[in-house]
Amino acid sequence: MWLQVSLLCLCCLPLPSQSQTQDRASLRRSNDHAGRCHYTFTVASPEESSCSRSSMKPEMDGVSSRLTMLEALVSRLIAGVDGDSRTRTNGEEGLQEAYSQVTRERTQLQQDKERLNGQVQELQRRLAELSQEAESLRQRPCQQIHTSGGTQRENKPASDPAHDLGNGAYQEMKAEVTEVPASHLIPEGNHNFTGCGELQSVGDPVLHRKAASITGKYGVWLQDPEPQGPDYTNKTVWRIDTVGKDVRQLFAYEDMDQLSQGFPMKIMVLPEPMESTGATMYRGSLYYQRKRSRTLIRYNLTSESLASRRELPQAGFHGQHPYSWGGYTDIDLAADEQGLWAIYSTSKAKGAIVISQLDPKSLEAKRSWETNIRKNTVANAFMVCGRLYTVASYTAPNTTINYVFDTATSVGQAVAVPFKNKYRYNSMVDYNHAQRKLYAWDNFHMVTYDIRLGRASHGSS
Predict the structure, then answer these.
(1) 327 within 8 A of 319, measured Cβ to Cβ
(2) I need a labelling partner for 279 at 20 to 30 A (CA). Which of 24, 98, 269, 371 fits?
(3) Nearest-CA neighbor of 332 among 416, 390, 271?
(4) Model pTM?
(5) Partners of residue 429 on adjacent β-strands
């Protein structure tokens, strides 16, 4: 390709001709047909031999064709990648949904299995009780004819009101008092002895509800033995699931039936988080230990507000002196016929159980006792008639209440009252003196135990 520059002027002067000697460029001067001076500057291209448009068209057409093909190929690749991505995404979403469905069905089947196993165990227990009762009824007429010699007593078992009870607790009582007239065997509110006394026996656990989720592994459930005000009665049931980092929800149920059906009538939010299963209910208030502290809190149920708070002096907390099952059970609050109590330990007591009687309004410790049993060697503890009782194991299905300390005499001693952990993980035991029952939370199961008291054997009251 040649680059030509033309310069026109009206008067041409001679120019040096040395530029004409250059190899690659030249400057030529001449007059045009009008007599004007005409300069021509020419540079030779090192690559192309011609500037013809017809010689450039094939190359341009080839490049354009190749670009068109490349664009089509890129479009197909992009479309394929998008399609594969959508297919893969849809496939992954389908697999995820199927996996979630299988997981839900597996969880439901597991829950159904556990429920059916519980029903089978309950039926087996009931069958054993009925078999025992039938055997007793078969033997009783012969024994009565032999001892009395009369025929009038042959039909007495059918009309004896004691036989209408039909439970294992009565069988145990009958075996202990075979020489006592039948009228003395009729219980009054689940016990014979109406006054305060020593714990004589604990019945079999009675199931009221099983928690449905993992948050119900352990917790607190209670009825107020001395309710205050018109809003709640001694039939109202209170429940707290204590699994979680921030335990604040307090569920209220109208009665036991509503609890068993799982329909709370109210849910309250506590002003400060709770720690562990040591809470108790007394005179219209919930008493509990604040999380990660030795602070005790009284929560008024009627006003739904914090009524008082106070530190329990020198009390261990958050795992310093728990029960043997752990769970940060350093401070256990309890109520009985004589008032409100705290069961705990201190560094000074070196892990031995300390009992303090508290003022129900101010939470001040009025008097304290130090026992000679270490807190971390027992599974649970509760107060009955001013006496501390400890449970030996929280997992053994057949264990004992192994120790009693009487605050009236400041004397402790070993005992052996049979106690059952039917579901093998008992994390809470509390006494209700109005119902004369123990309330317990045993591995998702909320159960009660009937107890029987008797007159003190060592003269304390």
Answers:
(1) no
(2) 371
(3) 390
(4) 0.60
(5) 440
